[in-house]
């Protein structure tokens, strides 16, 4: 048994339960954390925030346990949102960042939505590549990309409209051609007796194509 202790603080903020972890999150602490989360769920709590920014180590059993608890609470219409940006915890959850709702700090979580998620993605990008985006630049980039996608969608819509118009024109011309051929055939059948009597010249040479 490891001697290091994992500090656990649980508090209620409005309709959300906050669980703040500090210290090494070894496998030995996994049953205790599971018991606390499931106890909160059984008590009717559906919205939880798990703050792991001060966690210094993450055992290999911690993430699978939290995945199970996330599935459990989501099955009851709830959610577990997570707060952290330190490299140790980020590395442990890297393969599951699209499953968990992760925020870099409480401010981003309070704002919520795509802005909070974007801030976390921006931090991950800067950590991996060394490229940092200021908030104004990031917003301008989002606006430009959004405008580009809207313009692309508008162009595609116009092209689809032109293609439909061309298809309609082709169909109308085909119908007109077929109708014209039928009328010419009917006219030839009417003139045939006159040709046979020699009243008008034979038009066989002018056969319909």
Folded structure, characterized:
The chain is an alpha/beta fold and 209 residues long. It has two domains: 7-133, STAS domain (Transcription Regulator spoIIAA, 2-Layer Sandwich); 145-206. The chain is built from six helices and five strands; from the N terminus they run E-E-H-E-H-E-H-E-H-H-H. The protein has helices at 30-42, 62-74, 87-92, 106-111, 113-129, 135-196; strands spanning 7-13, 16-25, 47-58, 79-83, 101-103. Strands 1-2-3-4-5 form a five-stranded mixed sheet. Helix 1 runs parallel beside helix 2 (62-74). The radius of gyration is 36 Å and the shape is rod-shaped. The N and C termini lie far apart (96 Å). The mean pLDDT is 82.
Strand order within the widest sheet? 1-2-3-4-5
Radius of gyration, taken over Cα atoms and rounded to an integer in Å: 36 Å
Question: What is the total tally of β strands?
Answer: 5
Mean pLDDT: 82
CATH topology type of the largest domain: Transcription Regulator spoIIAA
Poorly predicted spans: none
- How far is the N terminus from the C terminus? 96 Å
Number of domains: 2
Number of DSSP helical runs:
6
Largest sheet: 5 strands, mixed
CATH superfamily of the largest domain: STAS domain
């Amino acid at each position: 048994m490891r001697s290091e202790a994992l500090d656990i603080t649980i508090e209620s903020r409005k309709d959300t339960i906050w669980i703040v972890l500090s210290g090494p999150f070894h496998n030995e602490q996994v049953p205790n954390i599971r018991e606390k989360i499931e106890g909160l769920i059984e008590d009717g709590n559906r919205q939880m925030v798990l703050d792991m920014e001060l966690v210094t180590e993450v055992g290999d059993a911690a993430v699978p346990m939290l995945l199970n608890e996330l599935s459990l609470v989501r099955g009851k219409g709830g959610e577990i949102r997570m707060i952290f940006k330190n490299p140790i915890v980020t590395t442990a959850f890297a393969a599951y960042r699209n499953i968990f709702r992760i925020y870099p700090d409480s401010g981003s979580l309070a704002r919520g939505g795509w802005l909070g998620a974007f801030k976390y993605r921006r931090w991950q990008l800067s950590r991996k590549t060394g490229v940092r985006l200021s908030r104004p630049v990031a917003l301008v980039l989002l606006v430009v990309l959004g405008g580009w996608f809207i313009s692309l969608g508008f162009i595609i819509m116009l092209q689809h409209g032109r293609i439909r118009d061309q298809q309609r024109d082709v169909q109308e011309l085909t119908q007109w051609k077929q109708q014209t051929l039928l009328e010419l055939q009917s006219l030839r059948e009417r003139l045939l007796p006159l040709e046979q009597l020699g009243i008008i010249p034979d038009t066989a040479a002018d056969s319909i194509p």
